[in-house]
Amino acid sequence: MRLSTIKLNGKEVASVVTTAGLVPVEVINKKLNQNWLTDMFWLIKSGQLEELNNWYRAGGKEKIENLEDDAIPKDKADYAPLYRHPRKIWGIGLNYVDHAADLAEKAPNTEPASFMKPDTTIIGPGDIIKIPLQSNGTTAESELGVIFGKECKDVEKVDWLSVVAGFTTIIDMTAEDILRKNPRYLTRAKSFDTFFSFGPELVTPDEVENVMNLKVATVINGKIHAQNVVSNMTFPPDYLVSFHSKVMTMLPGDIISTGTPRAVHISDGDVVECWIDGFESLKNPVKDLKK
Questions:
Q1: CA 156, CA 122: separation in Å to the nearest integer?
Q2: Of 95, 173, 217, 248, whose CA is between 20 and 30 Å from 261?
C-alpha cells in the first residue's frame, strides 16, 4: 500500500494512492463503512496503519480502486509532508564513501555518524527550500527514509522489518560552510527551517521487493548529480534500525534518514529532486533568502 498526505478543505489528510489518484481515508470511511483514523501520524501511532494495510491486501485494494470517481489525480493533488511532528528524526552522515569525499572526511566504518534534527525543519513536496541568511554554501541530499511503525527497543537486525511502517523519499539539507568551520556545528548546520523535506508517499514494506537493491539519486534541475545503491551503504537500513533502537526507545512515526549518495550545492532558482526506484519522486524548489 502507498499513502500520501494532502491538503484538503483546510486540513492535511491521509490518502491512499490508487491507479486513478489519491482517495482520502475519510472518503474510504464514508463510502466503504470503515472507521480508520484520517491523520497519517495517528494512523501510524495507533497501529491502525498495519491494520489498514492488512485489510487493503485482503480485498480492500479492489474496493478502493472502485472509488475512482472520488480520486484526486496526482497532478491535481496539493501534497503536504507525510506528517509534521515525529518525536525523533535521526540522520546518518557519510553513509556512502562517495559522500565522505565531498567533505574531505574519512567515512565512519565502525559505527554510524548519527545526528538529530528538529521537526521545525520539515517541509513537504513542492514547498520551498530556503537557503538561510547565515549560509553561503548549502547542500541538498537525497535519501531513503525509514519510518518506524511500533514502539521498540533493542531490535535485532533480523527483526528490523517487523518494526517498520514504511519507506519514503527525503531531501535533507546542510549548511555545509557552517559545518566546515567546526564539526561540532553539525546540529546547527542541519537544523535551519525547511532543511528536511519528506513525502510524497509512504510505501509499506510489502511493496518493496528488496530494499538493498534500491537506487537512490540526488537530482538537480532534472539532471542526476549522483546515484548509488542501498547495498553500497556502509551501514544498511537493518543495521541502522537495530543500532538506534539500542541507543533509545524508538516510537511510531520516528524517522531514520539513511544517508545520501552525494550532496549537491544548491542556489536560488534550482529545483532539487530525490529519485528512488519505484517511488514517486520528491521535488522542491530553492530560494536564497539573501537574494
A1: 29
A2: 248
